[in-house]
Request: fold
Amino acid sequence: MESNYEFNNRNLNQNRAYYYTRIEEIPENKIDRLNNLDPKFEALISDIDKAIKNEKSSIENLISEYIIILDEIKEIVKFDKDYLIIELNQRKKTKNYSNKFHLNIIKNELVIAMNYVFEYANTPKHYADGFRKLDSINTRIIKIKNNSIKINLSSDIAQSIKENRHIIIDNIKFNGINENVDYKLKENHSFADIELDSLKNGKYTLNGILRYYHRNGKIDIPFKETFEIK
Reply:
């Protein structure tokens, strides 16, 4: 059990370090509840270690705190079963186990649970859970060679997810009517560049989807942007 704990704790420390590094770079990805929960978790692990050394200690309060932390994790991951563990009181365990054994189980499961919640916090799924539609897109129109037009789209939200990101253009409308426009879509780390042939003057509406892939599937986030060619 000790070797399992060390392995799980290494994974936790890696995911935790990645999370804190990432929120320094992109503060919008911070989960306040997770930041508040982390020191409570560390304090409980410390109390469990003390109780393991003193087998006469009562463990009821520690189990209660363990359950409180798991309940908080459920809220953070929005009850996504892929990021939850089977709780201690749901397991079929006999009452013959010693307090020390129970505490080691709790300690190991806490580390696994916290590893899962940091893993969740580091995935596109968490970022996408915070929004289902992009409303704040900045558009920059650039004329390039051969009278072509480049539409540069940027968004703090879209830029917060750099891995496994795809942009899909559903349609382009000209003055409210679907327009058959040839375009080249060039992804970049700011959001996307869309190169189009020379366009007629007028108002255009671009409808598309930001698609992100995570370990359990895909997440589609629609966006709509209007720009004008003069």
Summary: Strands lie at 138-143, 149-154, 165-174, 177-178, 183-187, 191-196, 202-214, 217-229. The longest strand covers residues 202-214.
